[in-house]
Structure formats: C-alpha cells, structure tokens
Specification:
about 190 residues; Rossmann fold; binds adenosine monophosphate
C-alpha cells in the first residue's frame, strides 16, 4: 500500500491534483472537506454540526472529523492505498491516522505539500467561489481566516511528518500539468 497525504493551504490545488493522481496510481481519494460537504448537502446530523465551523472557516472538532475519517477508511480496506486530502489538519488527527493505519499494518509513505503564496490563494479561492457554490469561497474575510487557521493549526502537521523524514514540498504554481509532473516525480520514488 502507498498512502499519501496531499497537503497545502485551501486553494492550493489538492483536489485537482488528487483526481489526477487517482487516475494514474489507482489510489482511493479521501477528502474530509468533500465528506463534510456531502453531509451538509444531505442535511445529516453530522452536516448540521459541521456547518457551524465550516461557515466561519474554522476547523470542525477533531473528535467529529476523526470519527468520520475512520468510518471512511474502515469501509474501504481493500485498496492499493489512500490519498488523504485536507486531513490530517491537526496533530491529534495525525496521531489518530497513524494509529488507524498501524492497525492495518501500513503507514504514511509521504506528505507532499503544495507550496502556494497567500495572495495567489485568495485570488484563486475568490475565482473558484464564482462557480463552486461554496459559501466559504465567496467571502474574503472567511478565506483569510481559513489561511490563518492553516498557518496556526495545520502547518505543525508538516513538521510532525518532517521529523521522520516523510515531508516534502512541491511548487504549487504553474499549469495543472506542470504541477502534476512535479508530483509524479515524487510519487514514482514511493510506489
Ligand atoms: P476543504 O474542502 O478541505 O477546504 O475543507 C472545507 C472545510 O471543512 C474547512 O474549512 C473545515 O471547516 C472543514 N474541514 C475539512 N477537513 C477538515 C479537517 N481535517 N479537520 C477539521 N475541519 C475540516
């Protein structure tokens, strides 16, 4: 199994690149943001709970997020590996993921961070907000809060995997295909 964490701030292109990686390497894409949005759309109790945080651009509490992620992994055990997108976003989430994968005798092969600067992120998200239907992409204040939350709460996750030599950065600007080529050259060393 090859398990990858596709890391980076909101709007860094994780979803776009994950779809291309899935097609090439046959991994299962798990996006906690997508799972929350599915629950929002279907107005489930989980969606109602998560909405309070998502609308502000804050993180959904770890207990809720980890439970949802664990269920998704448990439902999909016979796969070649996972691409985690938007998870883990905190150290407790990273620790929970390590335990979960450890129970399956597997682990994270690498965390690859897409490197994109703040102003480019704001520009991309406002543009995406015109068509994505995502309320959290339309208000610049919420976008900037999401970037701050990423810096304060999520970047420690990069360091956490870096301590064991598993983190790396890839330039996240340029054409989609150029960025994909950079990711593939890292992936090819892992699979
Ligand atoms: P994303 O699509 O990954 O940008 O996620 C959209 C929103 O869902 C975030 O701003 C958070 O409110 C919530 N969310 C997604 N993944 C997580 C996570 N791993 N931990 C906490 N909240 C999350």
């Amino acid at each position: 199994m090859t398990n990858l964490i596709l890391f980076g701030p909101p709007g860094s292109g994780k979803g776009t690149q994950a779809a291309k990686l899935v097609a090439k390497y046959g991994l299962l894409h798990i996006s906690t943001g997508d799972l929350f949005r599915y629950n929002l759309k279907n107005n489930t109790p989980l969606g109602q709970e998560a909405k309070k945080y998502i609308d502000k651009g804050d993180l959904v509490p770890d207990s809720v997020t980890i439970k949802m992620l664990k269920e998704k992994v448990d439902e999909n055990k016979n796969v070649n590996g996972y691409i985690f997108d938007g998870f883990p976003r905190t150290i407790p989430q990273a620790e929970a993921l390590n335990i979960l994968l450890g129970e399956e005798n597997t682990s994270i092969a690498a965390l690859i961070a897409l490197d994109v600067d703040d102003e480019e992120i704001v520009k991309r998200l406002l543009e995406r907000g015109k068509t994505s239907g995502r309320a959290d992409d339309t208000d610049e204040k919420i976008i900037r809060n999401r970037i701050n939350v990423y810096k304060n709460e999520t970047t420690p996750v990069y360091d956490y995997y870096d301590e064991t030599g598993h983190s790396m950065k890839v330039k996240g600007v340029g054409s989609i295909d150029d960025i994909f080529a950079r990711l593939c050259s890292e992936m090819d060393k892992l699979v």
